[in-house]
Amino acid sequence: MGAADDPVEDRPDVAPLAAGEDDPDHQAADPGHDPAAADAAAAGAKYGARHIVLVIIPVTFCMTLVCFSIINLPAYKPSDDSSKQTTLYYTPIHETKGDGWGNLGVAVLNSLIFVSIVLGMTIVLVALYKYRCYKVIHVWLILSSFLLLFMFSFLYMLNFGIWLNVAMDYFSTLLVLLNFGVMGMLAIHWKAPLILQQMYLIIVGALMALILIQYIPPWTSWVLLAVLALYDLAAVLLPVGPLKVLVQIAQERDEPIFPALIYSSAMVFAATADGGDAADIPPHIDSPNIRSRRTASTLAAEQNDADGVEVMSNRSRLADTTDSDIEEEDRGVKLGLGDFIFYSILIGKAAISYDYTVIFSVYIAIIFGLIATVVLLAFLQRALPALPISIFFGLTFYFTTMYIVSPYVQRLSANQVFI
């Protein structure tokens, strides 16, 4: 019998639905009408957008610091004659001034040497991590951080003082450098507020980028960025890629990758409180990922929402913490420090042109690539390389703007043609 032969009015046990009212059975069968599912989807979208912003902001700060230094501090601008330029040991072949496309072969060789050294050092790091040689890794990272936070920071202070035309006495310089360096070592390798560690990681990335821009030959820089993007793609996605193996080992052990190598947008951090003991922390949240940011007294979970920031810091509320609080940190976007460095190298090379049209176009390209990577990360739920998309768009926008758009705009301006 058809539906038309069984009218709702003839069935006393079924009340007719008002106009615009949905059938409850239909709502239950259709998950699209489930308010809880809709709220969860909205919360997930909001959370993802928030963490995209939390990654864009530090990348922007790092690139801004590099651009400022390239434009205003002549010491960090590469020499015009690359044949007389001091090079690093991992780009040993000099380029010839005026050779043009003849330097392309030199750039390819230098890039292959550079990537080979990076690959070798990454394999050594993975091997040390696999066999739990944590002390060796810590010493390695501490020495690298010490060099950047003391020696390279001192050189930056000197160049910055020259730009400001400010005289600096030895005592004041030593005092500032000592406080800056020691605080940075503590923030990166021991305990500090998360925002302080993030600040120092941004500074370390900018300093490293400036050194590479200063000493890597110009043609090699462009080829190296493209080659590193391909290397990053293989190292993260291939089953035998060293970075993929490193992430897998860390996930199997439920351990964090060393904070000196990773920038995290996670909002879970430790806060110091009076009294208490580490044993008061519930066992189900006592993981290495939390211990790395835990004091001896308490654990705080900071969660951003639309109304502000809620901080749980007392032990009575800590006892009620669930696994969802730990997932908040795990869901934070983690960006390798190398990504900061090579983003900054790309925009630093654009800043050498002193053309703000080129600089802003490269910046937009990098940010667009970063957003695209985070969106893919949300869909695929796996570790993804952060360099390829941003570097591809950055190189494309640079050469297009530098050699097509910018000359065209300048020609229109010179002839007073307004479009």
Any chance you could write out the topology, listing elements then pairs?
Layout: H1 24-29, H2 35-72, H3 103-130, H4 134-164, H5 170-189, H6 194-215, H7 218-237, H8 242-253, E1 262-264, E2 268-269, H9 288-291, E3 300-305, E4 308-312, H10 315-318, H11 323-330, E5 334-336, H12 337-351, H13 356-380, H14 387-414
Antiparallel strand pairs: 1-5, 2-3, 3-4
Q: How would you sum up this structure, described in words?
A:
- This protein has about 425 residues and is mostly helical.
- It has 14 helices and 5 strands.
- The chain has helices spanning about 25-30, 35-70, 105-130, 135-165, 170-190, 195-215, 220-235, 240-255, 290, 315-320, 325-330, 335-350, 355-380, 385-415; strands spanning about 260-265, 270, 300-305, 310, 335.
- The model is unreliable at about 5-30, about 40-45 and about 265-330 (pLDDT under 50).
